[in-house]
Amino acid sequence: MHGHHHDHDHSPPDSRRVLTLALSLTLGYALVEALGGWLSGSLALLSDAGHMVTDSTALGLAALAAWMARRPPSARHSYGLGRVETLTALFNGLFMVGLIVAISVAAIGRLLAPPEVDGSLVTWIALIGLFINVAVAWLLMGGRHNVNVRAALLHVFGDLLGSVAALISGITILYTGWTPIDPLLSLVIVLLILISSLRLLREVIHTLLEGVPAHLDLGAVGKHMAAVEGVVSVHDLHIWSLSAETVALSAHVVLHRMEDWERVRRCLQEQLRKGFGIEHVTLQPEPLETRVPLKVMRQQPAPPADAS
Asked: Which of 143, 176, 195, 239 is 20 to 30 A off residue 259, Cα-Cα?
């Protein structure tokens, strides 16, 4: 006998629409930046345009994953395809690490042989990019509870920092002519992106290993469930993420009276949903009398040894 509850009507906003709009803005600006880099002769802008194109690819993958995650369960995938979002976040995190290496190599090359740059054009292009990246980041911040959206947001933050660096380097080159400022700032930004990328990868791996979501405490949830009237104890409690937006729970619930199960089940499901945001719940009831003999046997003293 199982208490089982499914609810696929997620309250968080639809990440597909946000990711699609972010993709359009990012790709559009990448074309503008590439044209500005070509006109100004700025290798920094051209490289950042390439960075924006790769970020557009990441956003496109994230939007595709969000669409696949919304598809209903099937006979072959009874939980649906929610884990596609986690796999996409893993790919994006690894891709960012590879991109960080490429940017670092390019920055060192520019330090050794700084290119000539039109500081005025770089400044204006970077200023436009800063406003666009702030707008895209603001769009994605609404879905930051979703690991897939956070992976995409990581790319956008990299672009935003890149725009800030390009703006500072453009102004510096415009007024001082000191071109090494561009690769130096790039290395600082690369370090910041690397830290965020490693944090994201750690979270994704934790999800793939069926770990308890970071915002939940297994012990606290168990105590909360055991405090419900009619419940003796809770054991074999498991909590894991089915997708970026869905948390699942399964547990065995020991009852004082099996006749109370329907009431207890509804109460547990309601409290788990309201108190912890867990909507995919599977509960197995157990009568108290099946567990008492074991406890009695453990408490009985050992028989006295035969003195004869």
From this structure: 239
